[in-house]
Protein backbone atom coordinates (compact mmCIF):
# COMPACT_ATOMS: atom_id res chain seq x y z
CA UNK A 1 0.00 0.00 0.00
CA UNK A 2 1.12 3.55 -0.71
CA UNK A 3 0.85 5.51 2.54
CA UNK A 4 1.26 9.29 2.43
CA UNK A 5 1.49 11.12 5.73
CA UNK A 6 0.66 14.82 5.39
CA UNK A 7 1.86 16.95 8.26
CA UNK A 8 3.42 20.33 8.91
CA UNK A 9 2.85 23.68 10.52
CA UNK A 10 -0.74 24.86 11.03
CA UNK A 11 -1.69 27.42 8.39
CA UNK A 12 0.80 26.10 5.82
CA UNK A 13 -1.79 24.47 3.56
CA UNK A 14 -2.32 20.89 4.80
CA UNK A 15 -6.02 21.01 3.91
CA UNK A 16 -5.19 22.08 0.35
CA UNK A 17 -2.67 19.25 0.06
CA UNK A 18 -5.09 16.65 1.42
CA UNK A 19 -7.74 17.71 -1.10
CA UNK A 20 -5.17 17.30 -3.88
CA UNK A 21 -4.58 13.71 -2.75
CA UNK A 22 -8.34 13.15 -2.59
CA UNK A 23 -8.75 14.48 -6.14
CA UNK A 24 -6.04 12.02 -7.24
CA UNK A 25 -8.11 9.10 -5.97
CA UNK A 26 -6.50 8.48 -2.58
CA UNK A 27 -8.46 7.40 0.48
CA UNK A 28 -8.02 10.41 2.78
CA UNK A 29 -8.29 10.76 6.55
CA UNK A 30 -7.84 14.11 8.31
CA UNK A 31 -6.61 14.74 11.86
CA UNK A 32 -6.13 11.06 12.70
CA UNK A 33 -4.92 10.22 16.24
CA UNK A 34 -1.44 8.74 16.06
CA UNK A 35 -2.42 5.63 18.01
CA UNK A 36 -5.05 4.74 15.39
CA UNK A 37 -2.74 4.85 12.36
CA UNK A 38 -1.76 1.18 12.35
CA UNK A 39 -5.38 0.12 12.93
CA UNK A 40 -6.48 2.29 10.01
CA UNK A 41 -3.91 0.71 7.69
CA UNK A 42 -4.97 -2.79 8.78
CA UNK A 43 -8.61 -1.93 8.03
CA UNK A 44 -7.78 -0.45 4.63
CA UNK A 45 -5.71 -3.52 3.77
CA UNK A 46 -8.77 -5.71 4.39
CA UNK A 47 -10.75 -3.41 2.11
CA UNK A 48 -8.08 -3.85 -0.60
CA UNK A 49 -7.21 -0.17 -0.60
CA UNK A 50 -3.97 0.63 -2.42
CA UNK A 51 -3.42 4.34 -1.74
CA UNK A 52 -4.11 6.38 1.37
CA UNK A 53 -3.28 9.89 2.56
CA UNK A 54 -3.44 10.68 6.26
CA UNK A 55 -3.14 14.14 7.80
CA UNK A 56 -1.65 14.32 11.30
CA UNK A 57 -0.68 17.54 13.03
CA UNK A 58 0.63 18.85 16.33
CA UNK A 59 -2.78 18.63 17.98
CA UNK A 60 -1.77 15.03 18.70
CA UNK A 61 0.70 16.44 21.24
CA UNK A 62 3.21 14.13 22.88
CA UNK A 63 1.79 11.10 21.07
CA UNK A 64 3.74 12.38 18.06
CA UNK A 65 6.85 10.93 19.70
CA UNK A 66 5.44 7.48 18.91
CA UNK A 67 4.97 8.26 15.21
CA UNK A 68 8.55 7.63 13.93
CA UNK A 69 8.47 4.11 15.38
CA UNK A 70 5.01 3.45 13.93
CA UNK A 71 6.18 4.62 10.49
CA UNK A 72 9.25 2.40 10.76
CA UNK A 73 6.99 -0.60 11.38
CA UNK A 74 4.71 0.31 8.48
CA UNK A 75 7.69 0.61 6.11
CA UNK A 76 8.42 -3.10 6.51
CA UNK A 77 5.31 -3.89 4.47
CA UNK A 78 4.28 -0.64 2.79
CA UNK A 79 5.61 2.33 0.84
CA UNK A 80 5.56 5.31 3.20
CA UNK A 81 6.10 8.95 2.23
CA UNK A 82 5.93 12.01 4.49
CA UNK A 83 4.93 15.36 2.99
CA UNK A 84 5.78 18.23 5.33
CA UNK A 85 4.27 21.67 4.70
CA UNK A 86 6.01 24.68 6.16
CA UNK A 87 5.94 28.48 6.04
CA UNK A 88 7.84 31.28 7.74
CA UNK A 89 6.44 32.67 10.99
CA UNK A 90 5.50 36.09 9.58
CA UNK A 91 3.43 34.45 6.85
CA UNK A 92 1.70 32.16 9.35
CA UNK A 93 0.85 35.07 11.65
CA UNK A 94 -0.62 36.97 8.72
CA UNK A 95 -2.71 33.98 7.62
CA UNK A 96 -4.13 33.43 11.11
CA UNK A 97 -4.90 37.14 11.32
CA UNK A 98 -6.71 37.12 7.95
CA UNK A 99 -8.77 34.00 8.67
CA UNK A 100 -9.27 34.88 12.37
CA UNK A 101 -8.77 31.24 13.26
CA UNK A 102 -7.11 30.14 16.48
CA UNK A 103 -3.90 28.16 16.35
CA UNK A 104 -4.51 24.55 17.52
CA UNK A 105 -1.88 24.97 20.24
CA UNK A 106 -2.90 28.47 21.37
CA UNK A 107 -4.41 29.22 24.72
CA UNK A 108 -1.74 27.31 26.62
CA UNK A 109 -0.48 30.44 28.38
CA UNK A 110 -2.02 33.66 29.69
CA UNK A 111 0.08 36.01 27.58
CA UNK A 112 -0.99 38.48 24.89
CA UNK A 113 -2.63 37.09 21.75
CA UNK A 114 0.30 37.96 19.44
CA UNK A 115 2.88 36.42 21.79
CA UNK A 116 0.69 33.34 22.32
CA UNK A 117 0.36 32.75 18.59
CA UNK A 118 4.10 32.99 17.96
CA UNK A 119 4.77 30.80 20.99
CA UNK A 120 2.30 28.20 19.68
CA UNK A 121 3.98 28.20 16.26
CA UNK A 122 7.41 27.71 17.85
CA UNK A 123 6.09 24.87 20.02
CA UNK A 124 4.56 23.23 16.95
CA UNK A 125 7.85 23.43 15.06
CA UNK A 126 9.64 21.68 17.92
CA UNK A 127 7.03 18.92 18.13
CA UNK A 128 7.15 18.23 14.40
CA UNK A 129 10.91 18.57 13.84
CA UNK A 130 11.59 14.78 13.92
CA UNK A 131 9.11 14.35 11.05
CA UNK A 132 10.42 17.29 9.03
CA UNK A 133 13.93 15.86 8.86
CA UNK A 134 12.73 12.72 7.06
CA UNK A 135 10.07 14.30 4.88
CA UNK A 136 9.63 15.91 1.49
CA UNK A 137 9.29 19.52 2.64
CA UNK A 138 7.38 22.25 0.80
CA UNK A 139 7.65 25.90 1.82
CA UNK A 140 4.31 27.59 1.09
CA UNK A 141 5.31 31.06 2.32
CA UNK A 142 5.09 32.55 -1.18
CA UNK A 143 2.96 29.82 -2.71
CA UNK A 144 -0.73 30.24 -3.62
CA UNK A 145 -3.19 27.37 -3.28
CA UNK A 146 -3.32 26.53 -6.99
CA UNK A 147 0.47 26.20 -7.13
CA UNK A 148 0.55 23.93 -4.07
CA UNK A 149 -2.08 21.69 -5.66
CA UNK A 150 0.02 21.55 -8.83
CA UNK A 151 3.20 20.68 -6.90
CA UNK A 152 1.38 17.87 -5.06
CA UNK A 153 0.08 16.53 -8.37
CA UNK A 154 3.64 16.53 -9.75
CA UNK A 155 4.86 14.74 -6.63
CA UNK A 156 2.30 11.98 -7.13
CA UNK A 157 3.71 11.28 -10.58
CA UNK A 158 7.09 10.16 -9.26
CA UNK A 159 8.12 6.58 -8.60
CA UNK A 160 7.66 5.32 -5.04
CA UNK A 161 11.24 4.10 -4.60
CA UNK A 162 14.60 5.84 -4.68
CA UNK A 163 15.57 9.46 -4.33
CA UNK A 164 13.31 12.29 -5.50
CA UNK A 165 15.29 15.30 -6.73
CA UNK A 166 13.47 18.60 -7.05
CA UNK A 167 14.99 21.41 -9.14
CA UNK A 168 13.43 24.71 -8.04
CA UNK A 169 13.98 28.22 -9.34
CA UNK A 170 13.37 31.16 -7.02
CA UNK A 171 14.00 34.87 -6.51
CA UNK A 172 16.31 35.98 -3.72
CA UNK A 173 14.19 39.09 -3.14
CA UNK A 174 11.50 36.79 -1.73
CA UNK A 175 13.89 34.68 0.30
CA UNK A 176 15.60 31.31 -0.07
CA UNK A 177 13.20 28.32 -0.03
CA UNK A 178 13.32 26.80 3.44
CA UNK A 179 13.22 23.27 2.03
CA UNK A 180 16.34 23.77 -0.13
CA UNK A 181 19.21 21.34 0.51
CA UNK A 182 21.55 22.86 -2.10
CA UNK A 183 21.38 26.51 -3.17
CA UNK A 184 23.10 27.96 -6.24
CA UNK A 185 23.24 31.75 -6.62
CA UNK A 186 23.25 32.83 -10.29
CA UNK A 187 22.76 36.57 -9.72
CA UNK A 188 26.29 37.15 -11.03
CA UNK A 189 25.10 36.33 -14.57
CA UNK A 190 23.89 39.05 -16.99
CA UNK A 191 20.25 39.87 -16.28
CA UNK A 192 17.67 39.95 -19.13
CA UNK A 193 15.59 42.22 -16.90
CA UNK A 194 17.58 45.21 -18.12
CA UNK A 195 16.49 44.59 -21.69
CA UNK A 196 13.09 46.25 -22.12
CA UNK A 197 12.03 43.68 -24.69
CA UNK A 198 12.97 40.70 -22.50
CA UNK A 199 11.82 42.16 -19.17
CA UNK A 200 8.17 40.99 -19.34
CA UNK A 201 9.21 37.50 -20.57
CA UNK A 202 10.50 34.53 -18.56
CA UNK A 203 13.25 31.96 -18.84
CA UNK A 204 10.76 29.71 -20.61
CA UNK A 205 10.42 32.07 -23.57
CA UNK A 206 12.58 31.62 -26.65
CA UNK A 207 13.96 35.20 -26.85
CA UNK A 208 15.26 34.91 -23.28
CA UNK A 209 16.75 31.49 -24.01
CA UNK A 210 18.54 32.85 -27.08
CA UNK A 211 19.85 35.82 -25.08
CA UNK A 212 21.28 33.61 -22.31
CA UNK A 213 22.65 30.97 -24.67
CA UNK A 214 24.99 33.55 -26.18
CA UNK A 215 26.70 34.31 -22.87
CA UNK A 216 29.75 32.12 -22.06
CA UNK A 217 29.34 32.63 -18.31
CA UNK A 218 25.82 31.19 -18.43
CA UNK A 219 27.05 28.09 -20.27
CA UNK A 220 29.89 27.71 -17.80
CA UNK A 221 27.57 28.09 -14.79
CA UNK A 222 25.21 25.48 -16.20
CA UNK A 223 28.09 23.06 -16.75
CA UNK A 224 29.54 23.57 -13.27
CA UNK A 225 26.20 23.06 -11.50
CA UNK A 226 25.44 19.98 -13.59
CA UNK A 227 28.82 18.41 -12.90
CA UNK A 228 28.51 19.13 -9.17
CA UNK A 229 25.13 17.42 -9.03
CA UNK A 230 26.33 14.44 -11.07
CA UNK A 231 29.30 13.98 -8.78
CA UNK A 232 27.42 14.12 -5.48
CA UNK A 233 24.07 12.46 -6.29
CA UNK A 234 25.40 8.94 -5.60
CA UNK A 235 26.55 10.14 -2.17
CA UNK A 236 23.11 11.49 -1.33
CA UNK A 237 21.63 8.15 -2.38
CA UNK A 238 24.14 6.29 -0.21
CA UNK A 239 23.16 8.56 2.69
CA UNK A 240 19.67 7.09 2.52
CA UNK A 241 17.87 10.29 1.61
CA UNK A 242 14.41 10.18 0.10
CA UNK A 243 14.27 13.80 -1.10
CA UNK A 244 16.79 16.38 -2.27
CA UNK A 245 15.80 19.93 -3.24
CA UNK A 246 18.25 21.84 -5.43
CA UNK A 247 17.35 25.53 -5.54
CA UNK A 248 18.73 27.90 -8.16
CA UNK A 249 18.12 31.57 -7.49
CA UNK A 250 18.44 34.86 -9.31
CA UNK A 251 17.14 38.26 -8.25
CA UNK A 252 13.49 37.96 -9.23
CA UNK A 253 13.19 34.28 -10.09
CA UNK A 254 11.90 35.06 -13.57
CA UNK A 255 14.72 34.75 -16.12
CA UNK A 256 18.12 33.27 -15.26
CA UNK A 257 17.12 30.77 -12.59
CA UNK A 258 14.12 29.57 -14.60
CA UNK A 259 16.28 29.05 -17.67
CA UNK A 260 18.97 27.13 -15.77
CA UNK A 261 16.51 24.92 -13.89
CA UNK A 262 14.90 23.93 -17.18
CA UNK A 263 18.25 23.28 -18.85
CA UNK A 264 19.70 21.25 -15.99
CA UNK A 265 16.51 19.23 -15.46
CA UNK A 266 16.41 18.43 -19.20
CA UNK A 267 20.03 17.26 -19.00
CA UNK A 268 19.21 14.68 -16.35
CA UNK A 269 16.05 13.53 -18.10
CA UNK A 270 17.99 13.10 -21.35
CA UNK A 271 20.72 11.03 -19.71
CA UNK A 272 18.06 8.77 -18.18
CA UNK A 273 19.38 8.95 -14.65
CA UNK A 274 15.82 8.23 -13.56
CA UNK A 275 16.14 4.52 -14.23
CA UNK A 276 19.87 4.02 -13.77
CA UNK A 277 20.10 5.43 -10.26
CA UNK A 278 16.48 5.08 -9.12
CA UNK A 279 16.05 8.83 -9.04
CA UNK A 280 12.83 10.70 -9.69
CA UNK A 281 13.28 14.21 -11.08
CA UNK A 282 10.83 17.09 -10.65
CA UNK A 283 11.22 20.74 -11.63
CA UNK A 284 9.24 23.74 -10.46
CA UNK A 285 9.44 27.53 -10.48
CA UNK A 286 8.40 29.19 -7.24
CA UNK A 287 7.87 32.72 -8.47
CA UNK A 288 6.25 31.78 -11.80
CA UNK A 289 4.03 29.19 -10.13
CA UNK A 290 2.88 31.85 -7.67
CA UNK A 291 1.08 33.85 -10.36
CA UNK A 292 -1.75 34.70 -9.93
CA UNK A 293 -1.44 35.12 -6.19
CA UNK A 294 -4.29 33.35 -4.41
CA UNK A 295 -4.16 32.93 -0.64
CA UNK A 296 -3.95 29.39 0.74
Number of domains: 2
CATH structural class of the largest domain: Alpha Beta
Backbone CA Rg:
20 Å
What is the name of the CATH architecture of the largest domain? 3-Layer(aba) Sandwich
Q: State the shape.
A: globular
Q: How much helicity do the residues have? A: 40-55%
Structural class: alpha/beta
Order of helices and strands: EHEHEHEHHEHEEHHEHHEH
For the record, give the distance between the C-alpha atoms at the N and C termini, rounded to a whole number: 30 Å
What's the CATH H-level homologous superfamily of the largest domain? P-loop containing nucleotide triphosphate hydrolases
Percent of residues in β-strands: 15-25%
Which stretches of 5+ consecutive residues score pLDDT under 50? 109-115
Question: Which fold does the CATH topology of the largest domain refer to?
Answer: Rossmann fold
Counted beta strands: 9
Describe the sheet with the most strands: 5 strands, parallel
Pfam families: PapZ_C, RapZ-like_N
GO molecular function: ATP binding; GTP binding
Protein name: UPF0042 nucleotide-binding protein
Keywords: ATP-binding, GTP-binding, Nucleotide-binding
What keyword list fits this structure?
ATP-binding; RapZ-like; GTP-binding; 2 domains; 4-stranded parallel β-sheet; alpha/beta; Rossmann fold; 5-stranded parallel β-sheet
Structure description:
By secondary structure, this protein is α/β, with parallel strands linked by helices. It folds into two domains: 2-156, Rossmann fold; 164-290, no CATH class. The chain is 42% helix and 19% strand. The chain has eleven helices and nine strands. The protein has helices spanning 14-23, 37-46, 67-74, 89-99, 113-132, 145-155, 206-213, 216-238, 256-270, 273-276, 286-289, and strands at 2-8, 27-29, 51-55, 79-86, 136-139, 163-171, 182-185, 243-250, 279-285. The protein has a five-stranded parallel beta sheet with strand order 2-3-1-4-5, with helices on both faces. A four-stranded parallel beta sheet has the order 7-8-6-9, sandwiched between helices. Strand 2, helix 2 (37-46) and strand 3 form a beta-alpha-beta unit. Helix 1 (14-23) packs across helix 6 (145-155) and helix 8 (216-238) crosses helix 9. The two termini are 30 Å apart. This is UPF0042 nucleotide-binding protein. InterPro entries: P-loop_NTPase, RapZ-like, RapZ-like_N, RapZ_C.
Amino acid sequence: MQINLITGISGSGKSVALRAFEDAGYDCVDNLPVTLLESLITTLEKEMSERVAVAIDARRGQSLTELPKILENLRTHHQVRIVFLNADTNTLVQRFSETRRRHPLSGKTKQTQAATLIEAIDKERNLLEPLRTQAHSIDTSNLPAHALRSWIQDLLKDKPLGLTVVFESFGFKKGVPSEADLVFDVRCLPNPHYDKVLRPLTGKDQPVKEFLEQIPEVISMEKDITQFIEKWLPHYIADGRSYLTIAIGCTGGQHRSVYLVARIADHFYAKKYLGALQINFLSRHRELDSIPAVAI
